[in-house]
Design a protein that fits this description.
This protein has 309 residues and is of the alpha/beta class. It is 35% helix and 21% strand. Strands 5-4-1-8-9-10-11-12-13 form a 9-stranded mixed sheet, sandwiched between helices. The protein has a 4-stranded mixed sheet with strand order 3-2-6-7. β11 and β12 form a beta hairpin. It is globular and about 50 Å long.
């Protein structure tokens, strides 16, 4: 990171899991057993991945989460500390285990994931209210939907009331009330999530515009619909365009979306224009597909800047 850039304060609120990953020659169909190859465990969870992505992209990250009082929780905390993330607002929950995700990765890098939420489902309104001084002093707040919706709503309300921009990655996909959406500054759904949020099937580019307009009408400042290998559709009330993806050979796409969101939050907090921020995030997402695992694949600032050069 260049000396001229002061680290911006990024508050991430969300989930922390341990990922158990198996590589297979293909994704199994229902009822089918497929003999896999490589197996490994690594820290994950959308919130944790985005926190690590933001830290490595150059942000000063404060993570609000819950982990179990178990070996997985301790391993996650150790990892956050090693990435320079502030962990004082992470609760060690004695009444619920740490979250676990089972991930199957096919030969083309595509994956399917099942999650046991554990302590993540207990991240509550009280946890967010306790963190109010940190949230209201942030440069940007980043959230996902692996936490209870009432917690997401409360955090968005605290941030918005203090004039702090909110980036919401609406994943995993579920319907959201206007009460939440109107407090969001930047919404980052993928195509499936955009369809669920709007009820509009995305077949052609004009459908992307319709979906984006429907979401912008909720009061959101900008909508960025991620398109996988095709890039990201960036929409405001004034302008809409596709920002192409960087060309790489994918190995594992598990953390691409999380890399995008973490890097986007940093770039926006640094005051970059929206399209420049989206390009920075695209570079981080591309690099994340070139290595196995979620957090192990997340790129540092220098590597992101090198791809952008």
């Amino acid at each position: 990171m260049t000396a001229s850039v002061t680290k911006k304060k990024i508050v991430v609120i969300g989930s922390s899991n341990t990922d158990m990953v198996i590589r297979t020659p293909r994704i199994p169909r229902p009822g089918e057993t497929v003999l896999g190859g490589e197996f490994f465990m690594a820290p994950g969870g959308k919130g944790a991945n985005q926190a690590v992505a933001a830290a490595r992209a150059g942000g000063e990250v404060h993570f609000i989460a819950r982990v179990g009082d178990d070996v997985f929780g301790q391993q996650s905390l150790d990892g956050f500390v090693s990435d320079g993330i502030h962990v004082d607002l992470i609760v060690r929950d004695k009444d619920a285990p740490s979250g676990v995700a089972l991930i199957i990765v096919g030969p083309d890098g595509e994956n399917c994931i099942a999650v046991a939420s554990g302590s993540n489902s207990r991240l509550g309104v009280a946890d967010v209210r306790l963190a109010k001084p940190v949230i209201t002093s942030a440069d940007i707040v980043l959230m996902q939907l692996e936490s209870p919706l009432e917690t997401v709503r409360e955090a968005a309300e605290i941030a918005a009331s203090a004039g702090v921009p909110v980036v919401l990655n609406p994943a995993p996909a579920r319907a959201l009330s206007d009460d939440i959406l109107r407090r969001v500054s930047y919404l980052t759904p993928n195509e499936t999530e955009a369809e669920i949020l709007t009820g509009i099937t995305l077949i052609k580019k004009s459908d992307l515009a319709k979906a984006a307009d429907a979401l912008l009408a909720k009061g959101i400042k900008a909508v960025l619909i991620t398109l996988g290998s095709k890039g990201v559709y960036v929409a405001t009330r004034e302008k809409k365009e596709v920002m192409p993806a960087f060309k790489v050979i994918p190995v594992d796409t598990t953390a691409a979306g999380d890399a995008f969101n973490g890097a986007l939050a940093v770039a926006l907090a640094e005051g970059r224009p929206l399209l420049e921020a989206a390009r920075f995030a695209n570079a981080a997402a591309a690099l994340a597909t070139t290595k196995m695992g979620a957090q192990p694949s997340l790129a540092g600032r220098d590597d992101i800047e090198k791809l952008l050069a």
